[in-house]
Amino acid sequence: MNEVTIKGEVKFVDEVREYGANGFRKQEVVVETGDGKWDNPIAVEFTKDNIEKSQTLKKGDRVTIEARVNGREWQGRDGVTKWFSSIAAYKVEAEGGGTDAAPAAPVQTDPDSSSFDTYDEFDDGGTDGPF
Fold first, then answer.
1. Considering Cα of 18, then 53, then 11, then 102, what sign does the dihedral take?
2. 13 contacts 54 by C-beta, under 8 angstroms
3. Are β-strands 3-13 and 17-19 bridged in parallel, bridged antiparallel, or unpaired?
4. What is the torsional sign of CA 67, 36, 102, 16?
5. Where are the alpha helices (DSSP H) in the chain?
6. Which residue of 1, 3, 43, 114 has the fewest CB atoms within a 10 Å radius of its CB?
7. Across residues 105-126, what is the average pLDDT?
8. Residue 125 lies inside a defined structural domain of this protein
9. How many structural domains are present in the chain?
10. For 43-52, how does the pLDDT look when each residue is reduced to its tens digit (9 = 90+)?
11. Contact 117/73 with Cβ under 8 angstroms?
12. Cβ–Cβ contacts within 10 Å for residue 87, how many?
């Protein structure tokens, strides 16, 4: 598997969103990983049972997130193939010093499978493709 460690400051915590008839749930958290001179916001998704690990996060928290990079090929009705990547978090820890947030449980779990295996957030039933 392709795993990454993302360290930085939480810039945005989205609400938990539900997709499709199966009730697939996802929460996106954006972590700023830049060096102060250049921004580098990374969107990380917490899905399924891993959503519980993101519930205490708030803007300004310094975190270390363990995640899996997932890829997916998608072909629109027009026959054009596109590729997408997602970063699916499975572990998060608050870094020491200056945060008021209680750290999410730092218990190691098996990485979650790709959220793209479960639903297609880009398929709105239209014929124009995902964008």
1. positive
2. yes
3. unpaired
4. negative
5. none
6. 1
7. 46
8. no
9. 1
10. 999 999 999 9
11. no
12. 19
Cα atoms found within 13 Å of the Cα of residue 82, Cβ hemisphere only: 10
Single pTM value for the model:
0.70
Instruction: Give tens-digit pLDDT for 12-67.
Output: 999 999 998 898 999 999 999 998 899 999 999 999 999 999 999 999 999 999 99
Q: Where do we find the tokens 């010093």?
A: 97
Running DSSP on this structure, what letter comes out for residue 57?
A: -
In a 13 Å sphere around the CA of 68, the CA atoms on its Cβ side amount to 16
Could you tell me where the beta strands, DSSP code E, fall in 1-127? 3-13, 17-19, 24-32, 41-47, 62-75, 81-94
Q: Token pair of 115, please?
A: 């959220």
CATH number of the domain that residue 62 is part of? 2.40.50.140
Q: Is residue 122 part of a domain?
A: no
